[in-house]
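call fold(seq) -> tokens
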Amino acid sequence: MVKQLERVDWEAEEYVVRDRNAGWYIGLFIVAAGLIALSIWQSWWTFAILIALCVIVILTSNLRPPRKIKYKLDTKGLTEGDKLHKYEEYRAFGILKEGAHYSIILIPKKRFGVQTKVYFPETNGEAIVDALGMRLPMEDVKLDLVDKLVNFLRI
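ret:
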């Protein structure tokens, strides 16, 4: 007898807010100014503009608070806001703990597919793992190099 998948609903922020003090912003400006100075000295005008745009994007994204997104797990898949991630698109899932935050990592079947990362409150953890475990195998997941770099730089 196949156990029926129960629906699990929760709400979570779209990303983890990282603490940044004045030293972080000063460091950002020093690195950016150094790279822009180097690029102007070497006449790499496009690179100088790219660095300036990156700093603007980082600063504006840091000022915007994360949105609260509604999630739903049901027989179709994981719904993130209005977007449905079907189970057929993924080969496995894993649970990752980053400090006090928990996230689901959906691992795509496609070789160059992008992983889907969704945060959830600890109180919903068991129901989420049970619901996903009925449809996908669970694998150990670790932060990849890019995620480690993003966490280290607190971006």
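Strands lie at 8-13, 68-73, 77-80, 83-86, 90-98, 101-108, 116-120.
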